[in-house]
């Protein structure tokens, strides 16, 4: 025959349960718990509440950690995208800078070419300034 112990919790915290096997039947004797037993039961209840609170807090922290990890992944993706955009912009800026330098070089070359052409052209005297003298008209008598 298996022997039962007081595995079940008492229905009321202030009572203890003792189980005896006499004459092939179980007798449950309940007596008021002592002050120490009541304090121990209260402490156990408090510890149980604290454990539940800790479990709830642990679950919240776990959720927060998961949310933070997801946010970190999203930030890493955004950072990668920004780095790619920055690389593209830098490449475009480099191309624009090269194009600008080429345009400036072309302008410089044409300016130098004009200066050389002017230096090689035969010296022409500037066109004489023409001062038109007003005609003197004489009035003849009629």
Give structural notes.
By secondary structure, the chain is mainly alpha-helical. It has a domain at 43-119. Helices cover 61% and strands 11% of the residues. The protein has one helix and two strands, in the order ββα. It has one helix spanning 35-120, and strands at residues 15-22, 25-32. The protein has a two-stranded antiparallel sheet with strand order 1-2. A hairpin with a 2-residue loop joins strand 1 and strand 2. It is rod-shaped. The termini are far apart. The mean pLDDT is 80.
Keywords:
mainly alpha; 1 helix; two-stranded antiparallel ribbon; 61% helix; 142 residues
What is the beta-strand fraction? 5-15%
Query: Structural class of the helices, strands and pairings?
Result: mainly alpha
Biggest sheet architecture? 2 strands, antiparallel
- Helix content, binned percent: 55-70%
* Uncertain runs: none
Mean pLDDT: 80
Q: What is the alpha-carbon Rg in Å? A: 53 Å
SSE ordering: EEH
Distance between the termini: 171 Å
**Shape estimate:** rod-shaped
Number of strands: 2
Question: Strands of the largest sheet, in order across it?
Answer: 1-2
Note the total helix count: 1
Keywords: Coiled coil
Region (Disordered): 123-142
Coiled coil: 51-95
């Amino acid at each position: 025959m298996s022997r039962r112990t007081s595995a079940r919790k008492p229905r009321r915290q202030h009572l203890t349960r003792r189980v005896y096997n006499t004459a092939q039947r179980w007798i449950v004797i309940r007596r008021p718990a002592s002050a120490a037993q009541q304090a121990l039961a209260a402490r156990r209840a408090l510890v149980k509440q604290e454990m539940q609170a800790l479990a709830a807090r642990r679950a919240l922290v776990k959720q927060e950690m998961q949310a933070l990890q997801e946010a970190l992944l999203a930030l890493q993706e955004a950072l990668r995208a920004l780095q790619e955009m920055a690389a593209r912009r830098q490449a475009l800026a480099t191309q624009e800078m090269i194009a600008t330098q080429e345009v400036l070089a072309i302008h410089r070359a044409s300016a130098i070419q004009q200066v050389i052409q002017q230096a090689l052209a035969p010296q022409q005297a500037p066109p004489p300034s023409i001062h038109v003298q007003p005609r003197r008209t004489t009035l003849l008598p009629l």
